[in-house]
Design goal:
heterodimer, A: alpha+beta, six-stranded antiparallel beta sheet, four-stranded antiparallel beta sheet, 19 strands, 40% helix, B: mainly alpha, Cytochrome Bc1 Complex, Chain D, domain 2, 3 domains, 1% strand
């Protein structure tokens, strides 16, 4: 059994609206101290403290979708039916109901198992959004994290649904008797609210000032100010402001210019975007711990989320799930200065024009004609649709609602296209999107729509050269051609340049293999970009191609936030190299990342993991211990260290590391699992069973623990219990074909038929 | 020495000899009628609107050009350095001082003289020519136009222009204390004149206090009449009380977000087209400052200042900031006098371009207007065919309408959308196309047929 399995994943940091926290990104990394979360939290005053002075804005916010984004479960917040009507799976029944003391609960009933109750501790969403409004629920679990209950409600469908990603991979599907409980990818409750490094989550945006931190010896501590999106989510911590203004109002202090909060009215374009895109966009975390009021770009990068190649289509539209971050690809941003608040009034979340004149509707043309006044003079000459028709609205053609691809097409969850493109029906068809034309005129083909578009508007605005390059790229494209297609440092806008460079970097740059002159020159020009994402990525590309060149020297001259981007890029690239078995490249990339960010514990952890994965346990231990010198509170790292020691035959040392993991987090399932494995090998079945049960108690989604428990139980003659856990293991990891045969043998031995 | 005699007898100055209007009847402590007479005699209406244009001033001033008595260039050159009154018989009119430098005096002397033999040129004149070898008659012609000399002095090559501010509404716009100060020491309000490219500069008439009091009294009476006649004095408005925070916010809006400083100077920042904003509380009546932001034409028709599209509460904030930020009003430095040539072709957008665009983009659209050095971002070169051919007409239209920032350009480029009609904006776009001698990209044109 391969036990090397705890690689820290950089991609875990990629998520919709990851929220984190931290301090000033400038200066010496070694001198950077962990943030005092308690003190940082104390700087937030809560929305109610704003109400007294800012009554009008508070009132607008309270009734906005941010003000109604969630909260404690109550008749006001819950739109889903908790009336006892069962949600019926093929192998389970879930009953959303109010219990005897009025709490909102999900009662999970499965044959042969005891009833399980999941108490709703928080409500997320209110089904507000036009393109698909949903509501989810969270519950606090044993380890102190707060996790999403995987039964969501769609207002448009008036049905319960769940996310099958990771199990059935059908996206979001309505729950029917065709679906097993574990077909829901997040069953048992897995995604945690807040940020926990070892749990795929990043749900920091479904509330305000959510923090989840390790409490050594107890597990995690999860806190939030509110599950609504409150004033301080955008304005930053207001405690100082409230105190200052209270003192001024009472005459105890004189009015001063620094009132403890900055005006958002004077934000520049990037500052303004940072506020909204902290949640409304995909981004890659480059440093944990962001809280509102801090510069988001010190903590994360939107453009480096392009690293996950399946997130965006070649023209910048979303291929995954990203809300409105595609704004960064819109011509209104790239060639103009549009921000979110150019159209969205930020308090009531209504609409206004660029001069802040309120607009009544999301469809009001003045959102666009404030800038594009030329189109207002004779609208029909441009729209070719009757003026009062839906087709004549700007947003009908330029911001159509697109179903978010990652969720599939069974549950409505469409968001208007914030790349604000011109209609290109054939391209839409090629990219698997429903064109704006077909959205209304479904009876015609995209080919017909394309002809009509060209009749009306003649030649269409050309796509940029990188987008064209991405579209024409083939698997067999050679490196020289790929460079010409993808590398265009002269193209306006940064997103396309990052996307082109990333695709080239992943597909055509190999460690130590010199670049041809065109590619090298293009990447060098991008390394001079004023944009830190592009600069960092270009330097990373140059470093990979020539580790002995000057890229590292140049990277070391960069500000910390850029070095973080550089190191993150190398860290992610190292994963690809590791997967290809390129040991030397992996080591080189991580060495470079660590040179740029010597104080980063996760990079040393990653290096140790990579070395361990290559069977180099001694060097792995060396790197892991270096990581511990930087941060000694890493339960997962102790598990990895224990595995390395075990592989070297040091069982005692391994057990010591596993116990250290457990002493930090008593619910660290992997540590209990490893202890169980050692006991199993030693023939201590009772001890192993006990350890596996501890693993499952803390980490019920840990399929391997279920399987090994099943094996231990079977050897102990407890076959029926073994079969149940074996089935759990298969349900949680349906791709593990080998496990099915093992469980089938148990079922045969127990005389139990297959459940379905 | 005939030329010298002619020069002395037919000089530019008119009234007494020095320091003021010797022999002129003293205005009695703010008598409006005296003020009216004085203004007529001084020829205020030759440049300013809102008061009667009295042709008499042109008969009291010497004409220039072919067919007029020979005028010695050296005399003009020296006279302009200190234009003393030389004709007491026509008091109280007088030649004012334009505070000209050597090169400007040289240029004007070369333009107004009709002595082709250039007799009597002295060492000082020759030295000036050596120092400014490129200065010629044509430069003098431009300066003659830019200074508005033709408003009083006839010249076959120049036309009078009444482009100075409306005096009938002066006291509705300006604080009387400031008018008094200004008349005593007419520092530069608009560095390039009231309408850049059309010339004009308020000269120093060396008025004495009694004269000033009389003129102000007359202006006050005109203001009352205008208010009664038009019924449109700006509504009463008082600046808001602003906290230090609000002051800082307002300043940030003004400096970083709004386009005001594209034309107006504040401290060391800002353009040189409009009046400087430092100490504006000393100059403008508060209610006028507030109203001029929303509708600049209300008491100043013909202004090139565009109406702001900003929200009313923000206009209140910024107007209050300007009035409360303190500082003393002082004139700005003059920029080089620049008279834009009247476009050869009568393109409909040419005049609009000259008034609104050329100060920054340059008379030929080359991005080199007199205001360009004072802008943080170089103005677009409208004559750049390669770059301009990438821009659709609609993009040019939108930029004129909504301002440079919507195109990712400078926030100092104002939005003219509230001040220009659709036809005027299209005319401007068409004129810009003549400057670049190019068309927009083909893809930007809508298709011809509807199917």
């Amino acid at each position: 059994m391969r036990s090397w399995q705890l690689a820290p994943t950089f991609l875990a940091a990629l998520a919709v609206g990851c929220g984190d926290r931290g301090g000033d990104a400038g200066g010496d990394l070694h001198a950077e101290l962990p943030k005092d979360v308690e003190a940082a939290r104390a700087e937030f005053a809560g929305a109610e403290s704003c109400q007294g002075c800012h009554a009008e804005k508070y009132a607008a916010w309270v009734s906005s979708t941010h003000g109604r984004a969630g909260g404690e479960p109550s008749p006001e917040t819950v739109i889903a039916p908790f009336d006892g009507t069962p949600i019926v799976f093929s192998d389970a029944t879930v009953v959303p109901m109010l219990d005897s003391v009025g709490r909102y609960v999900f009662v999970v009933l499965q044959e042969g198992r005891s009833e399980r109750r999941l108490t709703v501790d928080g409500v997320v969403g209110g089904g507000h959004l036009l393109g698909g409004g949903t509501q989810g629920f969270v519950t606090r679990v044993l380890d102190g994290t707060v996790r999403f209950i995987p039964f969501d409600y769609s207002r448009q469908l008036d049905r319960w649904f769940c996310n099958t990603t990771g199990r059935r991979d059908k996206g979001w599907v309505p729950i029917t008797t065709e679906l097993a409980l574990a077909d829901c990818g997040d069953w048992p409750p897995y995604r945690a609210i807040g940020t926990v490094a070892t749990i795929v989550n990043c749900q920091g945006c479904h509330g305000s000032q959510i923090t989840t931190r390790l409490e050594p010896g107890r597990g995690y501590r999860t806190e939030w100010t509110s599950l609504r999106i409150n004033c301080e989510s955008c304005h930053g911590p207001a405690r100082g402001h409230v105190e200052t203004m209270t003192a001024v109002a009472s005459g105890q202090a004189v009015a001063v210019a620094d009132i403890g909060l900055a005006s958002r009215a004077t934000d520049g374009v990037e500052e303004s975007l940072e506020v909204c895109l902290q949640c409304h966009a995909l981004r890659m975390t480059i440093k944990d711990g962001h809280l509102p009021g801090e510069r988001l770009s010190d903590y994360s990068s939107h453009l480096l989320s392009l690293f996950e190649g399946t997130n965006y289509l070649p023209d910048g539209r979303i291929a995954f799930f990203a809300y409105q971050g595609t704004h960064l690809s819109s011509s209104c941003y790239v060639d103009g200065a549009m921000t979110c608040v150019s159209c969205h009034e930020p308090h009531g979340l209504g609409y206004w024009d660029i001069n802040r004149a309120p607009l009544a509707s999301v469809n009001d043309d003045r959102q666009c004609t404030g800038c594009h006044a030329s189109k207002e003079v004779d609208p029909e000459a441009h729209t070719f649709h009757p003026p009062s028709s839906a087709g004549a609205r700007c947003v009908s053609c330029h911001m159509p609602y697109l179903q978010q691809p990652a969720v599939g097409d069974q549950v409505p969850f469409a968001r208007s296209d914030h790349t604000i493109p011109v209609p290109r029906p054939e391209l839409d068809d090629r990219l698997g999107l429903t064109s704006a034309c077909r959205g209304c005129h479904a009876d015609r083909s995209d080919e017909e729509h394309q002809l009509q578009v060209e009749r009306w508007w003649g030649d269409l605005k050309p796509l940029g050269p990188i987008t064209e390059g991405l579209l024409s790229l083939g698997r067999t494209t050679g490196r020289a051609l790929a460079a010409r297609l993808l590398l265009h440092p002269e193209e306006p806008g940064v997103r396309t340049k990052v996307q082109g460079l990333l695709v080239f970097l992943r597909g055509w740059v190999r460690p130590g293999a010199a670049l041809d002159s065109h590619a090298a020159e293009s990447i060098r020009r991008m390394a001079e970009s004023p944009d830190p994402d592009l600069r960092a990525l270009a330097l990373a590309a140059l470093y990979v191609a020539d580790p002995a060149g000057d890229a590292m020297k140049r990277a070391l001259r960069e500000p910390v936030a850029t070095r973080r981007r550089f190191a993150s890029a190398l860290g992610i690239l190292s994963q690809g190299m590791d997967a290809r078995g390129d040991r030397e490249g992996t080591e080189s990339a991580l060495r470079g990342a660590r040179l740029a960010l010597p104080g980063d514990a996760s990079l040393a952890f990653a290096l140790g993991t990579a070395r361990g994965g290559g069977g180099e346990y001694g060097p792995a231990i060396e790197a892991l211990e270096e990581s511990l010198e930087i941060d000694s509170a890493q339960p997962a790292l102790f598990v990895t260290l224990g595995v390395a020691r075990k592989e070297l035959g040091d069982t005692v040392g391994a057990l010591r590391e596993f116990e250290r993991a457990i002493s930090l987090n008593p619910y660290e399932g992997q540590a209990h699992l490893q202890i169980g494995n050692i006991r199993m090998r030693a023939g201590d079945l009772a001890g192993a069973i006990s350890a596996y049960e501890s693993a499952i108690a803390g980490t019920p989604e840990l399929a391997r623990a279920h399987l090994n428990l099943a094996l231990a139980l079977a050897r102990s003659g407890r076959l029926e219990e073994a079969v149940l856990h074996g089935r759990d293991a298969i349900a949680l990891e349906p791709r593990e074909q080998g496990w099915r045969a093992t469980v089938a043998r148990m079922e045969a031995a127990a005389g139990m038929g297959r459940p379905r | 020495m005939r030329w010298l005699i002619l020069g002395a007898a037919f000089a530019l100055g008119i009234a007494g000899w020095s320091g003021g209007p010797q022999g002129a009847p003293a205005a009695e402590g703010g008598n409006a009628r005296d003020g009216a007479q004085l203004m007529a005699a001084l020829g205020c209406g030759a440049c300013h609107t809102g008061v009667a244009e009295d042709e008499a001033i042109r008969s009291a001033t010497p004409p220039f050009g072919e067919g007029t008595p020979t005028l010695a260039p050296a005399y003009v050159f020296h006279y302009l350095a200190d234009p003393r009154p030389v004709r007491p018989d026509i008091a109280p009119a007088r030649m004012p001082s334009f505070d000209l430098d050597e090169r400007q005096r040289l240029a004007l002397a070369l333009f107004v003289t009709n002595d082709r033999e250039m007799r009597g040129v002295d060492d000082a004149f020759r030295s000036a020519q050596e120092r400014h070898p490129e200065t010629d008659r044509e430069e003098g012609r431009g300066l003659f136009e830019a200074l508005g000399c033709a408003s009083c002095h006839l010249h076959p090559e120049a036309s009078p222009r009444r482009v100075a501010p409306d005096l009938a509404t002066a006291t509705l716009r300006l604080r009387e204390e400031w008018i008094e100060r200004y008349l005593a020491d007419p520092a530069t309000v608009r560095p390039a004149g009231p309408r850049p490219g059309e010339g004009g500069q308020m000269p120093d008439f060396a008025l004495v206090p009694d004269e000033i009091a009389a003129i102000v009294a007359h202006l006050r009476e005109l203001g009352h009449q205008a208010a009664r006649r038009d019924g449109v004095p700006p509504p009463t408005w008082a600046p808001l009380e602003l906290s230090p925070f609000a002051m800082r916010k307002a300043e940030a809006l003004l400096v970083e977000k709004w386009s005001c400083l594209g034309c107006h100077q504040l401290g060391d920042d800002g353009g040189r087209i409009g009046p400087r904003l430092d100490g504006i509380a000393e100059r403008l009546r508060p209610e006028y400052l507030r109203s001029v932001i929303t509708d600049p034409t209300v008491l100043a028709s013909g202004t090139i200042m565009p109406a702001s599209l900003e929200r009313s509460d923000r206009i209140d904030l910024v107007a209050s900031y300007l009035l409360r930020r303190g500082g003393q009003w002082s004139g700005g430095e003059r920029v080089a006098h620049q008279a834009s040539p009247t476009p050869a072709e009568a393109a409909p957008g040419a005049e609009l371009y000259r008034g609104r665009c050329a100060p920054c983009h340059g008379p030929a659209g080359e991005g080199d207007g007199f205001n360009a050095p004072y802008l943080p971002v170089p103005p677009t070169d409208h004559s750049d065919s390669a770059a301009m051919s990438l821009r659709p007409d609609d993009t040019l239209y939108d930029g004129v309408h909504a301002g440079g920032w919507i195109l990712g350009k400078s926030r100092r480029m104002p939005a003219f959308g509230a001040s220009l009609t659709d036809a005027e904006t299209r005319d401007l776009v068409a004129y810009i196309r003549t400057l670049c001698r190019c068309q927009g990209p083909a893809w930007a044109h809508d298709g011809a047929s509807s199917g």
